[in-house]
Amino acid sequence: MEKLEQVIGTNPGAYLGELISVLSIDRQLINLWIGPAYVFPDVRDRAHTQAKQVTHENKELLKLYFPYTFEDFEYKQPCFVIVEDNIPVSICCSARSSTKADEASVFTHEDYRGRGYGIDVTNAWAAEVQKQGRIALYSTSWDNFASQSVARKLKLLQYGTDIHMS
Question: What is the pTM of this model?
């Protein structure tokens, strides 16, 4: 911690390499994930005509197509889906949540991409998070161009860089 504080303290914009070097002293880093972190502008009044909120009453529709979300449903709220042909084809729910902010987790099945479902379902999720008085966040990796395209279309504001190391 002291070495890390030293690097950050002397140079708040410290190079990532220096931080990785300090964090690798005790054990080797195996995974490194880096990408832009975004915040939603106020979207409480944006229309999301196709998105349907998933509640305890209708959560069964997740069971076959989004089993992990179904299993952890309590921790994924709020949750919205786009349903086509009685199948939930696009989903946005909270990946992480606190009293101050939630981070989006969005996925659209491959056969249904390019139809704007990801935008619609994510706007619905963000609007609900904001209505509940929390900040709606979104992050992705630098090499996930489709996700970055979603962020651009949503007109999200980049506020930082997300770094995950293990």
Answer: 0.84
